[in-house]
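Just scan my protein:

——
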Amino acid sequence: MQDDAAVMERTQILTKKRILCFGDSNTWGFSPADGHRQEKRWTRSLDLDAEILEEGLNSRNAMCKDPHMPEKCGFDAWKMMLMSHKPLDAVVLMLGTNDLKSTYHCSARYIANGLREYVREWMNPTLYEGFTQPKLLVVCPILLGENLPELEGEGGGFDAYSLQQSRLLTREIHQALEPYPVTILDAQDYAAASSLDGLHMDAENHRKLAAAISGSLRRMLEED
């Protein structure tokens, strides 16, 4: 009986859906209260019977490269993650917030076009030889808090231009990705940055976003 139970458990593990979550500090679970990693982050609150593979990195950019920390550019790791975690059933991509930093002075359209390059790479069939291409859910980031420039003060990482482009980012992502076979979710419709730092979600907003992402993933996976 124990051998049968062990075989059944292994079979369940092999058949369980595998979902890769690739993002920045709001995927990692950075707490706006103390900077620690939140236990109840959205990746751990998904209402799915699936294996969740967490690949969140604090300060990860979509396309911009910090000369002091070039490894924080997500595009350099994207292809490797898709290959190293296969087989995958779905991928959740949520990036773009850190590219809004004043040091980069990026427009929303530039960031959205950068995310389009992620999609084009995801469509590369050579990444999945022998496996099925996973479905892709692109999550447009939450809005920057209106109080963020004030909280950071002069010389801070985000300014008024950052806020302006943050408001435009969701629209630009939709336009950039419209021709591609991906699902898009607008995080700003479900969650918001904490007033404590204007940048990161608290536990309640992680819960809300997890519920929205769970629903989207469930619908995507049921299409098989």
Remarks:
- The chain has one domain: 18-222.
- Residues 18-222 form a domain with the Rossmann fold fold (CATH 3.40.50.1110).
- Residues 203-222 form the longest helix (20 residues).
- Confidence is low (pLDDT under 50) at residues 6-14.
